[in-house]
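User: I'll paste a sequence; please echo it back and then give the predicted structure.

Assistant: Echoing your sequence first, then the prediction.
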Amino acid sequence: MNNRKWTNIILGYSIIYTITTLLNSVLYLVNGIYEDPSGNWHELDRAIIILIGVIAFELCTKLSVRPLILRYVIAYVPSQLLVFVYVWFCGFKEELAKTAYRDIWINFTSLFTLLCIISTVISIYKEKKSKTF
C-alpha cells in the first residue's frame, strides 16, 4: 500500500473514533452522567473495536468478489465475530452489562453499514464520472 492509502486509513480511523467518543460523551452528559463509569478502559475498548472495523472494511475493499454486497458480508461476519470475542475477553477484566453483546452488535453493525453505504455511493459516483469522460 502506498502512503496515501495509509494516510486515508489513519484519517478515517481517527475521524470515526473522534465522532463516536464525542457522541458517547454527549449521551452521557444528556443522561446526567458526568464521568465515564468505565473510565480509560472504555476508551481503549472503543479504540480496539473501531480498529477491527476499519481494518475489516479496508480488507473488504480489496476483495474481488462480486456482487458488492457479498464482499461486505464476507468482511462483516468475521469482524463481528472478532468483536464478540473481544467483548467476551473484556468480561474477564470487568463485569459486562446484560446488554453488552446486543449493544456492540447494534453499534458495530450500524457503523459498518454506514461505511458500506458511503463506499458504495462513492464507487457509483466514480463509475458514473469515468463513463461520462
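The radius of gyration is 17 Å. The mean pLDDT is 86.
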